[in-house]
What does this fold into?
Amino acid sequence: MKALRYKKTWCKKKKSKNNIQLQQRALEKKKKEKQVNDLQKQKNKLHDLLEKGVYDIGTFLERQKSIVIRLKTTQEEIEQLEHEIKDVLEREKHIHQFVPRIKNILEAYYATEDIEKKNCLLKSVLEKVTY
It folds into this structure.
């Protein structure tokens, strides 16, 4: 009985924490994508300013280099955020698979009197126990 209450509480807390992380990463990704869009617009305006003669070639190249570096950095940050989002989703998936498996093993463990079976059940979820 305690195990079921603990499971429900633990799952809710874990799911809530994962959802918050997921939402934060998604918001950060959206901001970074907007930054990329803004930087692309800036890059396009640079060409216009060069064509109009507002910028000389040296200034144009300097500013273009700066924008390209910022673009690359922002795109790398987006890739990192996508990786983090994928990790959070993967953890969520594993949690939903792990909890029912442990529940079944615990039920089988308490249902049997055979020590060998109990040992096998414990070994199926534990690698090593240190006393």
In short: The CA atoms of residues 29 and 78 lie 6 Å apart. The chain has one domain: 2-125. The two ends are 27 Å apart (CA to CA).
